[in-house]
Structure formats: C-alpha cells, structure tokens
Design goal:
Layout: E1 27-32, E2 40-48, E3 51-55, E4 65-72, E5 76-88, E6 91-104
C-alpha cells in the first residue's frame, strides 16, 4: 500500500503576532535617531499593546530608538519608547518597550 506524502510548507503570510492588533489611526508625535531634530507628527495605521505601524516616507534604520506620544480615544496620553523593527516604503514598524506612561487628559470645565 502506498501512503500519500505530505509536505508542510510555511505560509509567509501567517500571522506571527502574539498581541491583538487594531486598525486605528491616531496622531502620533515621534522623536528619535534617524529623524531630523524636533518632533514629527505621523499617523498610526495599526497598533497593539506591543507596537505600532506608523505611516511615513522617512526611512529609519532597524533598531533605531524612538519615543512616541499619542492620545487614545478614551482621552489618555500614552508615552512610550521603542525600537524600529523595520522600515517600509509606506512606514515604520515600532516595537514598544515594556515601560510606558499613561496620563489622563484634563477636561475643560466651562
């Protein structure tokens, strides 16, 4: 009797992320090595607890250190630092460090 032979082929499109990622466009202020001095305003394309993809045409070298501030829809300012995982023609993927700062924004009382 002949048994069929199966070959496992790894699909390169298979999701390897361990944290849920959300398609969320947030204004992000980013500073870091490889960027001109000052703060740059970018938009996130998607974000998770572990990182984000930010839209930009600027290339940042892999492992460049960055600091990012953004406000989530609940009105909380998030300050994180991280490292560039990769640069693509449409943006950069950043892995967040484990430490971050959350600051509730003050609501105007008129």
């Amino acid at each position: 009797m002949v048994y069929p032979t199966y070959i496992l082929i790894e699909d390169p499109v298979v999701e390897r992320r361990k944290l849920e990622r959300f398609d969320l466009r947030l204004l992000a202020k980013i500073e870091g090595l490889g960027l001109k001095k000052g703060v740059h305003n970018l938009l996130t394309r998607n974000i998770s607890a572990g990182g984000a993809f930010l839209e930009t045409t600027k290339h940042l070298p892999e492992n460049s250190r960055v600091s990012i501030d953004f406000v989530v829809p609940t009105g909380v300012l998030v300050k994180v630092t991280g490292a560039v995982l990769r640069s693509e023609p449409t943006g950069i993927a950043v892995r967040f460090d484990n430490e971050y700062q959350l600051t509730p924004l003050q609501k105007n009382s008129h």
